[in-house]
Each structure stands twice: as C-alpha cells, then as structure tokens.
Amino acid sequence: MDKAQQDAMKKEAGIEAAKLVKNGMIVGLGTGSTVRFLVDELGRRVQEEGLQFTGVTTSRRTQEQAEGYGIKIVNIDDVDHIDVCIDGADEVDKNFNGIKGGGAALLWEKIVAINSNKIVWIVDASKLVDVIGKFPLPVEVIPFGAAHVIERLKERGYKPTLRLDAEGKPVRTDENNYVVDLHLERIDNPAALNEDLINMVGVVEDGLFLDMVNEVIVGDPNGPRTLINPNKA
Length: 233
Known about the structure:
Layout: H1 3-18, E1 26-29, H2 33-49, E2 54-57, H3 60-68, E3 72-73, E4 84-87, E5 91-92, E6 97-99, H4 106-114, E7 119-124, E8 137-141, H5 146-155, E9 160-162, E10 178-182, H6 190-198, E11 203-206, E12 208-210, E13 215-219, E14 225-228
Parallel strand pairs: 1-2, 1-4, 2-3, 4-7, 7-13
Antiparallel strand pairs: 5-6, 6-12, 8-10, 8-11, 9-10, 13-14
Helix pairs in contact: 1-2, 2-3
InterPro entries: NagB/RpiA_transferase-like, Ribose5P_isomerase_typA_subgr, Ribose5P_isomerase_type_A
Pathway: Carbohydrate degradation; pentose phosphate pathway; D-ribose 5-phosphate from D-ribulose 5-phosphate (non-oxidative stage): step 1/1
GO molecular function: ribose-5-phosphate isomerase activity
C-alpha cells in the first residue's frame, strides 16, 4: 500500500469518526496522522455547520491545530468527564489490544482515554494485526536514571532503544520525559508485559492499551468500516 492510498484511508476514517461529535459534547482529541484528518473535518464542521463542542487534547500539536480552526480547547482538569475520545493507534489486534505512542504522546493519550465514557480509534487497514508487537512498543521514562532503566529492560530481553530526534538528541514528550522503544516483534502476553513495565521504577507509562477501546473505525479500500469490541458493547 503506498502513502497516497494510506492517507486516503486515514482521511476516510477521520471523516467517519467526526460524525460521532455532536453539539455540546466534550471530546478527547488524540494525536497522529489520522487524527489530523479528524480535526480538519471537525474544523470544517465548526466553520461551515456551526458545530459547537469542547475539546481536550492529548498533545500540544493537536491543540494548536484545533485552536487554528476556532475549536474551544480546555485542560483535562477543567472538565468532569469526556463524552468520547477519538485517537489513532499504531497496531490493533483481534482482541482489541493496541499499541500507541508512535507520536510520543502515550501518557497524555492514556490519561484522556481512561477519563472518557467511550473510546474510538481511527486507523487505516494496515494497522490491523493478529498479534501486536511488530510495531516497537513505546515506554515513557523519566530522564533521571534513564540509562539504568534501559539496562534493566535490556536484561529482561526487551531490546530497548532510546528514541532520538533528527539531531540525535533524545525525543522529549510533552511532560519532558524520554521515550524508549522495545523491539519485541510479537507480544504474546500483553497483560503480563504491561504489569512488568508499569512496576519498574522510572517508567511512567507504556504504550499498551489493552481492551480499552469501544470501537475501531477502519479506513478500507471499500470504504470505512467499524469494529465493535464485544467486551465493551
């Protein structure tokens, strides 16, 4: 699948998901290339249809894009709930387990997600997999003592690499933490891995989003389709 096809499917999924947003809602807006199309469509609806809703964003990038369209953005601590959170995902398996954090926003994404009444992911068809893990699993790590955390991850056989930017400096999250990517190829027991990582001192959060999502809207060559998580129906 070439990039143009992939972008067309992402755009489809974004436009389809925008239909879920109604007047007066509080909406979690995710981060990433598919979400950009969602925000473009929501911006169009705000400007052309007079749609009014309040957004809570999972990154400063999304906040800037949304505010550029005149979408009202508030801090997560200024709302008591979020009606629906719409976000992308880097991989999704048939048990509705996902990997997120390719854009280094995993901590904010997870905080917004767990405070949402409904979670929807928008992906192109290439993100659907049998077993997650081919996509490197992001782990957000506090910079203090990060080398020791990486060493511990190495000892566990998790094949960690510190994520670097184009200048060779460590990538920083919106909380100013580092991102370590685990090159696991496949994750057969994501719950056990999540437990191990989250109990490691120095690890803030990992990119395993396990059985959290209600619906996945998939951009497909034949048009968007929605997968419903039976555990959340």
